[in-house]
Design a protein that fits this description.
By secondary structure, the protein is an all-alpha fold. It has one domain. 65% of the residues lie in helices and 3% in strands. The chain contains eleven helices and two strands. Strands 1-2 form a two-stranded antiparallel sheet. The longest helix is centred in the last third of the chain and has 32 residues, at 212-243. The two termini are 31 Å apart.
């Protein structure tokens, strides 16, 4: 049922005129009480590592279909609306189109080929392009599940604790985790700022719709004010951190204590098993022998 809603039902529920910037929800957190919400943030990061590693080693359609089922079940267990989870996919359609085109129009030495207006299109390239595009879709879906179910502060604390052994090698773990969290947190902020600038330009007579070339041209006058607003927010954040006496790692303590539970161990085991299975049956060597 969830797969039917994902690929058939949800495109008719999302407004076609929705802005590209409004589709990006990476970095946002939606509170909930689902199974994935209640997982330890460190467990979710470890599970995400196994999931992304497994997706990056998929070279066969059976293994990819297995990941589609797995992530569909994970998305169902978040108790979030389908359009919220899949809104990021709509925002990255341009990336999917580029990925599919690069593989489609690449001349291959095997398989049937079609020459149209001097451009060689290979069936093998179409299959590979569809495979890599599906991998990108699943990676974005997995990142959306992680960010929508994990508060930014918990994400930073768990990342810092997982990388704590690197402190012995003089690696600034706290600073790295803090910078990654700020970058992730600024994604929805920049998206909201872009929507505000776009609406201001439309209210002053800028065309709201048009051809693809016109839409690309409309992005040019929006880049400069967007950069100015982003640097202004970064300057305000730096002043606020300095006013509150932030001095980096030092001897800082954490407000929240994390504890692993049986469901965290079960989730890590399932993700690790899926990643190993995907690597074993979907590796390039296995794919070459099929």
């Amino acid at each position: 049922m969830f797969l039917f809603k994902m690929f058939v039902y949800w495109p008719h529920k999302i407004r076609p005129a929705m802005s590209l910037w409004q589709n990006i929800t990476l970095g946002q957190f939606i509170p909930g009480h689902s199974f994935i919400h209640r997982l330890d943030p460190r467990a979710k990061l470890i599970c995400s590592f196994f999931v992304f590693s497994g997706l990056l080693t998929v070279y066969s359609w059976p293994a990819l279909l297995g990941w589609i089922v797995f992530l569909s079940l994970a998305a169902w267990h978040t108790d979030l609306r389908i359009n919220v989870l899949l809104r990021n996919i709509r925002g990255f359609l341009w990336l999917f189109a580029i990925t599919l085109s690069l593989h489609t129009f690449t001349a291959a030495t095997e398989g049937p080929q079609v020459s149209l207006w001097g451009i060689s299109i290979s069936w093998h390239g179409v299959i590979d392009g569809a495979l890599y595009t599906a991998r990108l879709v699943l990676i974005i879906l997995g990142a959306a599940i992680l960010t929508l179910t994990t508060p930014p502060n918990d994400f930073a604390d768990s990342l810092e604790r997982l990388l704590a052994p690197l402190n012995r090698l003089r690696v600034p773990v706290h600073e790295l985790a803090f910078v990654m969290t700020l970058a992730l947190r600024f994604v929805p902020t920049i998206a909201q700022e872009a929507v505000r600038i776009q609406r201001a330009q439309v209210s002053r007579g800028a065309p709201e719709r048009g051809s693809l070339i016109q839409q690309v041209r409309q992005l040019v006058p929006m880049i400069v004010p967007l950069f100015v607003a982003t640097f202004h927010r970064a300057d305000e954040l730096a002043l606020a951190m300095e006013a509150r006496g932030y001095r980096g790692h030092g001897a800082r303590t954490s407000f929240r204590e994390f504890r692993y539970s049986s469901r965290d161990a079960m989730a890590i085991f399932i993700c690790a098993a899926c990643a190993w299975t995907s690597w074993y049956f979907g590796s390039p060597a296995k794919h070459a022998n099929l």
